[in-house]
Amino acid sequence: MKYRGPGFHQRFHGNKLGLYVADDADRFEKYMAENGYGKPVDVWFKSIATILDLQFDLQGHWKE
């Protein structure tokens, strides 16, 4: 899972002040506000949980 790597950890935990500083910060902050997230790391955890909870099947219905 590439989302567990140190780059993603650093990105979603922010800089030394805890601020999200990636090039998509404006869009990301808007997404957080619209979806009720308080911290960037909450979005990261939700993304990982969604991937882990996805039920895969051999027929490919999980893509729907």
TrEMBL record:
<dbReference type="InterPro" id="IPR025332">
    <property type="entry name" value="DUF4238"/>
</dbReference>
<dbReference type="Pfam" id="PF14022">
    <property type="entry name" value="DUF4238"/>
</dbReference>
<protein>
    <submittedName>
        <fullName>Uncharacterized protein</fullName>
    </submittedName>
</protein>
